[in-house]
Write a structure and sequence with these properties.
- The chain is of the alpha+beta class and 581 residues long.
- It is 39% helix and 14% strand.
- The chain is globular.
- The two termini are 25 Å apart.
Length: 581
């Protein structure tokens, strides 16, 4: 954190501040920089502000440094539960320790074996964490936040290792109750006779950390879950997802114009000499909107590619990406969804709010209404009593699809999608023919840092040496800049189980030579929109008028046999309330 800035976590009321809350929300890595951000923010509040904010900042600093130092222990425990692999961090990172020599970094490749080799080579610096009494920027002594890094552990945790909430989570409470309440005749029985719900329950009933399976959601990319089934059974499960929509022909033609573009001048020439529709053809919004969107995206990317400051290769605040990238790639694409809107800026999910308050029966300070999961954007109907069909979660940094931050974001987003799907199934009255066509979508995107420098403390904390990774392969491994994006989709094929499928990971190109990456991303966003539109059509089909005979029978109490009903999916698992400090 530079200057006198204060981390956005402290924008909330002081009563809600706590070291665990900060560690869970702050996505700065590695851990030492996360703690540095925490201390600097509290010191800045202490120096600049008055009243309750100043009092709480002083209290939190005291809780970390004085008497029994309870927050120091909480930070250590949090670090042990949330290892981020080695202490190497390549986005404006700092190395701490008593390194005695510097090795040459070269010949790095994207191959995992070579990556581990390169990690090991760097770790020969004998890096250690902050020692006690390291001088801060303010000349104060800072206590050690943790014991030591595990140099052999990569940031490659499985989904079941992540937790949305506190470590007090116990799977054998509501998870067990939900299972026992299931109707055995409504469970998902595979061709082999295997019962999906039973397999999940046996594996995860004693798990001590939260996983998607505790909400009865199978992530098709989770190898741990896949290993519970035979190859034939897993193939049968995976085949039950809804097909991806085929790309619109006019949009495909609009994209194809740019197939051979490799330079900014070539991109400008195509934009100036070709058109997304025939020049003598009048504009039809319903017909040409997507083709025009492609044209707009290319026009907006061109000045970014041409920028002498290489704007796409620099780090910016999250708002910059929202305004200059995602606004025309995502928001504009979704604007032609009739009767729907995309609400940004920390929107609260109504579906999750309803789940969290389903047991609320009274008012009062101890029974306040709980707020649903806050997301970076929600796609919903524009009615007052709206329904939600999609969501967006933005991460400030990307360290791989197996990084802790990415996995936690995915868990939170997936649970919100499950809440949305639950409400939509209620909306269609659990009609089996409609439920099997419902599909909600999510978008996870992150900024991949551009920093290529490593700061190493040699001999003592006061001596700094800057090392620049200058080789092509090292830069490729550690400083591969860009904006990552992935679409998630969830459906309910059978029984009490939902499926989560993750599409390919796409990237906004930082140079025009990689424009092909943008084509794939635009296609993925278009498919996301089409899935939202199709899902809305399914829910609207519940209003199809009844025949005269059906209506007469219903009005006179002799209603014909109701259509088959799907099993009602369970509520998403309630994450335990975090402890207050």
């Amino acid at each position: 954190m530079s200057g006198k800035r204060i981390h956005e976590y402290f924008d909330r009321t002081p009563a809600k501040w706590g070291i665990l809350g900060f560690l869970n929300e702050c996505d700065i890595e590695p851990f030492d920089l996360k703690m540095d951000e925490y201390f600097k923010s509290l010191r800045n509040i202490l120096e600049r502000e008055r009243g309750k904010r100043r009092e709480k900042a002083e209290l939190l600093l005291d809780r970390y440094r004085k008497d029994t130092r309870p927050d120091r222990q909480l930070a250590k425990d949090w670090y042990n539960r949330n290892p981020t692999g080695s202490s190497i961090h390549f986005h404006n990172s700092t190395f701490f320790g008593n390194a005695q020599r510097v090795e040459t970094i070269n010949n790095g490749t994207s191959d995992q074996r070579e990556k581990r080799k390169l990690y090991k080579e760097i770790l020969q610096f004998n890096l250690l964490p902050y020692a006690d009494n390291v001088k801060s920027d303010h000349g104060e002594d800072e206590d050690s936040e943790y014991e030591a890094y595990n140099e052999n552990e990569e940031d490659d945790v499985g989904e079941s290792s992540t937790s949305e909430g506190d470590d007090s989570f116990k799977a054998n409470t509501s998870f067990v109750k939900t299972y026992k309440d299931m109707d055995p005749t409504r469970k998902w029985v595979l061709s082999s006779g295997m019962i999906v719900e039973d397999v999940i329950f046996r594996k995860y009933k004693n798990m001590s950390v939260e996983s998607l399976t505790h909400s009865w959601v199978i992530d098709l990319d989770n190898h741990e879950v896949a290993s519970l089934f035979s190859p034939a059974d897993w193939k049968e499960i995976s085949s039950q997802t809804l097909s991806l929509p085929q790309l619109d022909v006019l949009m495909a033609k609009s994209v194809s114009r740019f197939a051979r573009v490799m330079t900014t001048s070539g991109l400008r020439e195509i934009l100036e000499t070709t058109f997304y529709r025939s020049k003598d053809e009048p504009y039809d919004r319903e017909k040409h909107y997507d083709a025009e969107w492609v044209d707009l995206a290319m026009r907006r990317m061109l000045p970014l590619f041409e920028s002498p400051d290489q704007l796409l290769r620099k780090s910016h605040l999250e708002g910059w990406y929202d305004s200059n990238i995602w606004s025309f790639i995502v928001d504009y694409a979704l604007q032609d969804l009739k009767g729907m809107e995309t609400v940004r800026k920390e929107s609260s999910s109504l579906a999750t709010t309803m789940r969290k308050n389903r047991k609320r029966v009274r008012t009062g300070t101890k029974d306040r209404s709980k707020i649903g999961r806050r997301l970076d954007a929600i796609v919903k109907t524009d009615a007052d009593a709206y329904y939600e069909y999609g969501a967006v979660e933005v991460g400030k940094s990307f360290r791989g699809v197996k990084s802790t931050k990415w996995l936690i974001d995915k868990l939170k987003l997936a649970k919100t999608l499950h809440d949305m799907l639950f409400r939509l199934e209620v909306l269609v009255d659990h009609q089996d023919s409609l439920v099997k066509k419902l599909q909600v979508v999510g978008l996870v995107n992150s900024v991949l840092g551009t920093g290529s420098s490593l700061k190493v403390i040699i001999g003592s904390p006061q001596l700094h040496l800057w090392i620049w990774l200058s080789t092509k392969n090292a830069l490729k491994l550690f400083s591969n800049t860009g904006l990552k994006c992935r679409v998630l989709r969830m459906s309910h094929p059978d029984g009490y189980v939902c499926l989560l499928e993750r599409d390919e990971l796409h990237e906004v190109p930082t140079v025009v030579e990689n424009l092909q990456d943008l084509f794939k991303l635009l296609k993925s966003i278009w498919q996301m929109k089409k899935m939202i539109r199709d899902c809305l059509a399914v829910t609207n089909s519940r209003h199809i008028p009844k025949t005269e005979e059906e209506l007469f029978a219903e009005l006179t109490g002799g209603s014909p046999k109701s259509p088959p009903r799907a099993a009602m999916i369970p509520w998403s698992l309630d994450t335990p309330t975090k402890r207050k400090h």
